Amino acid sequence: MDTPVLGVGPALAAEADHEALRIDLAAAFRWFARLGMHESVANHLSVAVSPDGAQFLVNPRGRHFSRVTAGSLLLLDAHDRGTLTRENAPDPTAWYLHARLHARLPRARCVMHLHSKYATALACLADSTMYPIDMNTMRFFGRVAVDVRFSGMALSGEEGDRVADLLVEGKTVLLMANHGVLVVGESVAAAFDEMYYFERAAETLLTCYATGKPLRLVPDAVAALTERQWRDYGQLAVDHLANIKAILDTEEPEYRKLCA
Ligand SMILES: [Zn+2]
């Protein structure tokens, strides 16, 4: 379907935005699969399509990240109580977590949840602090909330509400103890970049731990400055996703397909 450019009304313009969001999110699925950050056919990424966040796109149940297309993403309404009983229902844990997060946090346009190797390993340590030891770890200085209350799979809306309460202003990462990681962002590009760098930062920290040598920590003021400098580098996230899409356009262009 061509994206309308001229003479479109508000509804059509919104539909064009919606298509762009589908393509961006499909690209993020494909790339996380390439990076090995997926797990089986589990885990979920979502993006809000309505201003209040209630309507959102999420991956269909049981589909491998490497097979997600723009058109296969489910369009759901966080207030629709019949969602899980319908044909083509989403994964229940995806529903309970993402529906409540989008409904409660309209600013969190994109929500990504993975059990990626290094972030999950960090979440399994008694001390899950992301210590500031290099630029990537410093990016997360003050941005990480740790949910220490793992109580089984998230199979109720209460779990989503509890998680939403932990993501207070300024927190972009929720490290879920004994479980995995969740990031929020103002766009697919922002959340994708945040997840990518969090995994890299966790990899560096855990590689340092593996040496058994003491960490070379920087002062909090330096870490805080570096975190602010990262925020001024927002274009990096936009360029990152644009490059991912350019590579996929050459190597697996079917990710853009608007049919399921
Ligand atoms: Zn999970």
SS summary, helix count:
8
- Please write the string of helix (H) and strand (E) elements: HEEEHEHHEHEEHHH
The low-confidence parts are: 1-10
* Spatial arrangement of strands, main beta sheet: 3-2-1-4-7-6-5
Bound molecules: zinc ion
Shape: globular
- What separation lies between the terminal Cα atoms? 14 Å
Give average pLDDT, whole number.
92
> Count the strands?
7
Could you estimate the helical fraction of the residues in percent? 40-55%
The profile of the biggest β sheet is: 7 strands, mixed
Strand content: 5-15%
Rg for CA atoms? 18 Å
Computed structural class: alpha+beta
Top keywords for this entry?
binds zinc ion; alpha+beta; 7-stranded mixed beta sheet; 260 residues; disordered N terminus
Report on the architecture of this protein.
The N terminus is likely disordered. The two termini are 14 Å apart. This protein is 43% helix and 12% strand. It is globular, with a radius of gyration of 18 Å. The chain is of the alpha+beta class. Strands 3-2-1-4-7-6-5 form a 7-stranded mixed beta sheet, sandwiched between helices. 40% of the residues are buried.
Could you outline the blueprint of secondary structure elements for this entry?
Blueprint: H1 10-34, E1 44-48, E2 55-58, E3 74-77, H2 92-104, E4 110-114, H3 117-123, H4 135-138, E5 144-147, H5 157-166, E6 173-176, E7 180-185, H6 188-211, H7 220-231, H8 234-251
